[in-house]
Amino acid sequence: MKSSTVFVMWTLMAAHSPAQSVPPPIIDMHMHALRATGQGPPPVSLCSPPTSYPPADQVVGWNATFTSLLKNPPCDNPLSSPMTDIELMERTFAIMERRNIYGVASGPLVEQWRKEGGGRIIPGLGFTLGTDAPSVDRMMELFKSGRYTVLGEVGIQYQGHEPGDPRFEPYLAALDQMDVPMLIHVGPGPPGTPYLPGTGAYRARLHSPLVLEEVLVRHPKLRVVAMHAGWPMLDDMLAMLWAHPQLYVDVGVISFAIPRAAFHSYLRAIVEAGFGNRILFGSDQMVWPEALEVAIGSIESADFLNRGQKRDILYNNAARFLRLSLEQIALHHGK
Prior knowledge:
Blueprint: H1 3-15, E1 26-32, E2 45-46, H2 62-71, E3 79-80, H3 85-99, E4 101-106, H4 110-116, E5 121-127, H5 136-144, E6 150-154, H6 169-178, E7 182-185, H7 213-218, E8 224-227, H8 234-243, E9 247-250, H9 260-275, E10 279-280, H10 291-300, H11 307-322, H12 326-332
Parallel strand pairs: 1-4, 4-5, 5-6, 6-7, 7-8, 8-9, 9-10
Antiparallel strand pairs: 2-3
Helix pairs in contact: 5-6, 8-9
């Protein structure tokens, strides 16, 4: 049965089903199974959503300024990270259970999270180019075995590489052949990313989703999500969504790490341009479990979205993109 037919069938069933015994499900397309030290020695804190960002002090250097910001955030109720790996996982799972969230996660602890997550974790293979990258054959083995479901987060932007880099092409060809989805970072990292340790090759020009164009043309059947929706390159993002109807976006870090008004303005522009059915929810939850709630709130509080549009972003669009079966969708809805 075609996935579109399954999706329509489920929509009709849901419209005539009795009251749900579980909250409406959410698919988070962008989570990280990190260690508690994943953003530096814990605890680290941040204002979410923020209202402003500090300017650089060239005397002390940006890394010192940014580190100080994570230790002394300028707000009354910042998000604070757990001290241990177990606490990070358990606090995240508690929110996922309460809000009925199923999450695509990648990171060093993803296999443990999948084992402990009661079916709520969809495992993603994190990827960067270099000596740590698996061979193409090894990557294909990992997907064929079912160990991973998607390639992502693909973080080659942090290395200064475009998706069309010739070294990445064999991996894209393999994904195309196997029909494996790819979730790729196209947008912002932390403020001042080029001046932080280990990310000196990062460039703001790579925020533009236009870097995906040749990849999409070469591989038109490839399922691709531009993470962070290419923020703040709105015109480029709209051009890509118009030209390449197979492209999806997730809201990623901008759902909790930029001012709420700025996020809503960006999201509204994509929706009003007619692309609301290709927006996926993604929290980019790293070491702050409660960022999940802030990210969800950024969608729920959007007064320019109707109820159906919110459900599309929080669940329906991702179910279509992932090609979930009718049985999987029913399970998520507690049927």
